[in-house]
Amino acid sequence: MATVKRAVVLMNLGSPDSTEVKDVRRYLDEFLMDERVIDKPFLQRYLLVKGIITRFRSPKSAEAYKSIWTKEGSPLMVLSYQLQQALQQQVEEPVAVAMRYGNPSPKKAFDDLAAKYPLLEEVILVPLYPHYAMSSYETAVVYAEQMHKKGNYKFKLRSIKPFYNAVDYIAALAESIKPYLEQEYDHILFSYHSIPERQVLKLGNKNSHNLTNDDCCGSDPSTSKYCYRHQCFETTKLVAEKLGISNNKFSVSFQSRLGRAEWLKPYTALRLGAMPDEGIKKLLVVFPAFISDCLETLEEIAIEGRHTFLNAGGQEFTPIPCLNVQPEWVKTLAGWVTQIREGKKEMLLETY
């Protein structure tokens, strides 16, 4: 094992260490002080986060985490380690786990790998975010790069590109949805994590974006490769085509809005309250922006969203689990690792 030259690090969002308010507040402080999450000047961000948001949000968030916490701990953490174990069974490279916020950090993962495999030459970072957004994919990659540079490790660090339109990812996502289409349903809602509109406009050519058009900036490849909104609609279109879902049977919305700024629309919470009056009584909800089930899927939608929909007159509400450790998804990840081992590096970012 000491001769291992390549390893894999799966990088997810992270989670508080416990549901105690102090741990939740520490986690939220780290998360929301990230300049790529709340993209405002430091002092303004500090006063907003430390003085207002975490002070009042931490107790409420702690209760939300309690509603989904398991005996094993945070669902996101449990599922991340399960994915590590499942992938490890299919690849020869050592597989580690890191989180953007909380524990374990990329530094912890890098240190452990460097100590165990002194001849390690390359680490492949797999950010578990299919779509490019500065507050998810970008911050994960940049943070890992910073930790790598500070650590002065002997191995190179390479990252998997966003895979929102990768054929095998689309196939795995479609496979996870397919069994739920066998039941009677009126509509399937593709609910993505939202981001402020200003963050979309910051990346690429601002004039290429059209926030009222589903394709957004699709005609400008130099911009669409950074455009979260375009990529969400593209994933939806490809999955719907793969499953043969007619255009009138699905739609896109965006969840988890924070603050008063304009975020990507339509808002999931508003759509869930309006759909029953539109004749949608039996609803399926899928979360393509999330690889692992977490607070945003299990509490915000599966609990709170269900309540909103049923109280508005809905009859059946079915959230579809994330990819988690779905066999086709694990097989897809293993295939990517194998391709990299064989020298097919088209899916990788440049070397750092």
Overall pLDDT score:
96
Computed over alpha carbons, the radius of gyration is 20 Å
Model regions low in confidence, pLDDT < 50 over at least 5 residues = none
Can you list the strand order of the major beta sheet? 2-1-3-4
Q: Could you tell me the strand content as a percent range?
A: 5-15%
Order of helices and strands: EHHHEHEHEHEHHHEHEHHEH
What is the top-level CATH class of the largest domain? Alpha Beta
Tally of structural domains: 2
CATH architecture of the largest domain: 3-Layer(aba) Sandwich
Total helix count?
13
What is the CA-CA span between the terminal residues? Answer: 25 Å
Keywords:
Rossmann fold; 352 residues; 8 strands; 4-stranded parallel beta sheet; 2 domains; 13 helices; globular; single chain; alpha/beta
